[in-house]
Amino acid sequence: MNNLTLKQMRYFEAVAEHRHFGHAADAVGISQPALSMQIKDLEATLGAQLFERASRQVRLTRLGEDLAPRVRAILRSVDEVADLARSSQQAMSGRVRIGVIPTIAPYLLPSFIGHLTRDHPTLDIHIRETLTPKLITELGDGRIDAAIVALPVSEPSFEEVAIFDEDFVLVRPDEDADRPVPAARDLAKMQLLLLEEGHCFRDQALAFCSMRSALPREGLDGSSLSTLVQLVGAGIGVTLIPQMAVAVETRSANVSVARFDAPCPKRTIGMIWRKTSPLADQFRVIADSVKKAASALP
Amino acid sequence: MNNLTLKQMRYFEAVAEHRHFGHAADAVGISQPALSMQIKDLEATLGAQLFERASRQVRLTRLGEDLAPRVRAILRSVDEVADLARSSQQAMSGRVRIGVIPTIAPYLLPSFIGHLTRDHPTLDIHIRETLTPKLITELGDGRIDAAIVALPVSEPSFEEVAIFDEDFVLVRPDEDADRPVPAARDLAKMQLLLLEEGHCFRDQALAFCSMRSALPREGLDGSSLSTLVQLVGAGIGVTLIPQMAVAVETRSANVSVARFDAPCPKRTIGMIWRKTSPLADQFRVIADSVKKAASALP
DNA sequence: GGTTGTTCATAACCCTGCCTTATCGAACCC
DNA sequence: GGGTTCGATAAGGCAGGGTTATGAACAACC
């Protein structure tokens, strides 16, 4: 029979993901019969079924299940070959997909994207904003090319470079402005408002207060720094936010911002990418650009 | 431009190895112009040259040098996929997940697993022991591949094959051994001990006594046949068990076993799997093996 | 329970793309 | 300078892969 083709593998990946021939066909941009035929050919060349077509349900066979990760790996490798070729040809051009955590994105992105597209007009930047664990998964899967997160990540397959440190500041209701700044351990006794479970900034704030985990307090976890600051403004408690968020978030709330004495809490923001990524050089340039954008912020 | 293809990569690999278009073309079994065209297309899609065509010498560019190992790795991975598919498709090998009901598993499995793994050492059998309704759900969801249960199941999406019939026998306290065997309808008046709600064997025993359902009798439902026999031994009542369980369960209890006159109660044990399952052939072989194992039991 | 809808497979057709052979052109060799 | 080598180019034919239309099986719904 015929040989395997990348086309067939791409189609296979799509069907494996969607478990539905019609949707998979849409996803890869061909008609459903064309996709069905390719899958059929693929199964014929392999000499075994990959999918079990039940009524209204497409299921991977055991072989399909075994093959899926290998096929994905192959396709990612092929993408990398294309990336490598492109980057070798002309630095700082082409599509680059960058993930950013939510406690960084709103404050850093506007100026950073501006700088970068001005300096490198051929660069096509796609931004994905979500929590660190998801970014790490997507980076590993090749669905994004790099990510801007809090270090360390400590994945052996990723390269990580620090970009800048950012201090945490205390946000209190306006009327507390003249009170002394509490020590770290005193924060634990106050009504400290935190982001929802899953945000790395939540864990970083807790670490500063030397708390292993927060007691569950119904309704007092915010889904964004903006929410937290609004709650503080309403007198519900106090919170920590990164320095970078101060200008944007405290503009229109009745809150006062106070810096901590040494040791000032902080975190390191950096960039990560797959060690095998051929775009590494570009990422170093981008990281540098991010650093400039960050230091230009108020 | 066009997409990368495995064909192009194979040609690239050949040229990289031979450093000669004509020889490479012979090696991959096409004409030299065809190969030249494919390489040209490949370079066009990558946007960079891979070879330096000097006079009487083909040399890899820097990029070609970088790409060669990646391309080789990809081609090897693809070969592995094909090999994996081929080897997996040899019958009676690989992982097979089989569900078995609790009133069968302890008696049948030891010898059946032994037979099967001896005859098919590459077969990797996973057993799941639980009640019929759960097995049916898991089979439908693809969490198991087949199940050994009492027939009929009558799910239109499942194939079912009978394996063997097994008679039910009466278990009484030792001192009743000489009494006549009661008729089916008399059992209803005796203290008949049953398995807990949910076991199909409970319903089958009730059906034999022409009872639609048992009155709830606190504390008199057993969680296993073993428990029921122990209760009988303690003089609490009588019970029914499948023939197959006699040897194991009545060995060390003060009970006597009696067979019923015709019509002897019995049930049909069989195997079920999704009609769409590509493993159907394997299941028929396995069912046959189960049948042999069952007839070899005392 | 007939009808409608969903979903994958099949059919018929068409076009693009790949391979073939023939030939060219440049570089090297004598 | 003629012959040789070797990759590029040209022209034509076949087929692989795409399209739309339709079929078949089955679930779901008045």
Can you describe what's shown?
Two copies of one chain form a homodimer. By secondary structure, chain A is α/β, with parallel strands linked by helices. Chain A folds into three domains: 6-85, Arc Repressor Mutant, subunit A (Orthogonal Bundle); 95-151 and 275-295, D-Maltodextrin-Binding Protein, domain 2 (3-Layer(aba) Sandwich); 165-266, D-Maltodextrin-Binding Protein, domain 2, CATH 3.40.190.10. Chain A is 44% helix and 23% strand. The first copy, chain A, has helices spanning 6-18, 21-28, 32-46, 62-89, 105-119, 132-141, 184-187, 200-208, 225-233, 246-249, 280-295; strands spanning 51-54, 57-60, 94-100, 123-129, 146-151, 158-173, 192-195, 221-222, 238-242, 255-259, 266-274. In chain A, the strands form two sheets. In chain A, strands 3, 4, 5, 6, 7, 8, 9, 10 and 11 form a nine-stranded mixed sheet that branches. In chain A, α8 (200-208) links the parallel β7 and β8. In chain A, α1 (6-18) crosses α2 (21-28), α1 crosses α4 (62-89) and α5 (105-119) packs across α11. The termini of chain A are far apart. The mean pLDDT of chain A is 84. Chains A and B meet through β1 and α4 of A and α4 of B. Chain A binds a DNA duplex (30 and 30 nucleotides) through residues 2, 7, 20-22, 30-34, 36-38, 40-41, 53, 55-56, 58.
